[in-house]
């Protein structure tokens, strides 16, 4: 992978990294975090709708810089799914559980993509876009935060589940399933 492709992928994943600020914001004011996420969901949905209907919107040039070629012509769901997943996680689960889910969706998914793009040589069977290196990076990076809140056996289970969900070939859906399923499991294990 050349440097410009790697930089492009890192800029795309910056959206995931912004999600990491949500638990901190929610800790101070859950309502504020929910309001910001809801505003983003509405704003982004409107912007993408304008794009696919061939109308311009002032945010489109900025958003287009971090979209892949095929996303420039269709509704790009990944940021929307991430925002919805994070919003639902902070709204329905404890702060600790939502933090674990959002951390996996924000940081671990980003690290998996970067490691997979840079070092991933061997693809997972049946998952042509995912590599062993990326999935291992996800798993290893998920463990530290999981260990903070959960006993080791449960932390390992949650980390494996997150890595598995991220590796599935359902494009963009991991942005929704990882924070929700991981937060749900963490909630069950915590209480």
Give descriptors for this structure:
single chain; mainly alpha; two-stranded antiparallel ribbon; 9 helices; globular
Structural class: mainly alpha
End-to-end separation? 44 Å
The helix content, as a percent range, equals: over 70%
Mean pLDDT level: 86
The parts where pLDDT drops under 50 for at least 5 residues are none
Task: Please work out how many helical segments DSSP would assign.
Answer: 9
Question: Domains counted in the coordinates: how many?
Answer: 1
Q: Which band does the percent of strand residues land in?
A: under 5%
Shape: globular
Which series of helices and strands comes N to C?
Answer: HHHHHHEEHHH
Give the C-alpha Rg: 17 Å
Strand order of the largest sheet: 1-2
Mind describing the biggest β-sheet? 2 strands, antiparallel
Give the secondary structure arrangement, pairings included.
Layout: H1 3-18, H2 21-28, H3 30-52, H4 60-64, H5 78-92, H6 95-119, E1 123-124, E2 127-131, H7 132-149, H8 152-167, H9 174-190
Antiparallel strand pairs: 1-2
Helix pairs in contact: 1-6, 2-3, 2-6, 3-5, 5-6, 5-9, 6-7, 6-8, 6-9, 7-8, 8-9
Can you summarize this structure?
This protein is mostly helical and 191 residues long. The protein has helices at 3-18, 21-28, 30-52, 60-64, 78-92, 95-119, 132-149, 152-167, 174-190, and strands at 123-124, 127-131. Helix 6 packs antiparallel against helix 7 and helix 8 (152-167) packs antiparallel against helix 9 (174-190).
Kindly describe this structure.
- The chain is mostly helical and 191 residues long.
- It has one domain.
- 75% of the residues lie in helices and 4% in strands.
- The chain has helices at 3-18, 21-28, 30-52, 60-64, 78-92, 95-119, 132-149, 152-167, 174-190, and strands at residues 123-124, 127-131.
- It has a two-stranded antiparallel ribbon with strand order 1-2.
- Helix 3 runs antiparallel to helix 5 and helix 6 (95-119) packs across helix 9.
């Amino acid at each position: 992978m050349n440097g410009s492709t790697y930089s492009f992928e890192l800029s795309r994943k910056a959206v995931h990294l912004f999600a990491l600020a949500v638990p901190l914001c929610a800790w101070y004011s859950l309502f504020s975090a929910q309001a910001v996420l809801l505003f983003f969901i509405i704003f982004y949905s409107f912007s993408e709708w304008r794009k696919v209907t061939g109308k311009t919107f002032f945010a489109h040039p900025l958003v287009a810089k971090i979209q892949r070629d095929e996303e420039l012509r269709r509704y790009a769901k990944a940021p929307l799914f991430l925002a919805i997943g994070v919003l639902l996680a902070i709204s329905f689960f404890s702060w600790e559980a939502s933090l674990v889910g959002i951390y996996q969706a924000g940081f671990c998914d980003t690290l998996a993509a970067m490691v997979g793009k840079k070092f991933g040589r061997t693809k997972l069977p049946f998952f042509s876009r995912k590599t062993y290196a990326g999935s291992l990076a996800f798993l290893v990076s998920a463990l530290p935060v999981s260990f903070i809140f959960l006993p080791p056996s449960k932390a390992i289970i949650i980390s494996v589940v997150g890595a598995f969900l991220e590796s599935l070939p359902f494009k963009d859906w991991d942005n929704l399933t990882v924070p929700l399923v991981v937060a749900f499991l963490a909630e069950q294990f915590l209480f």
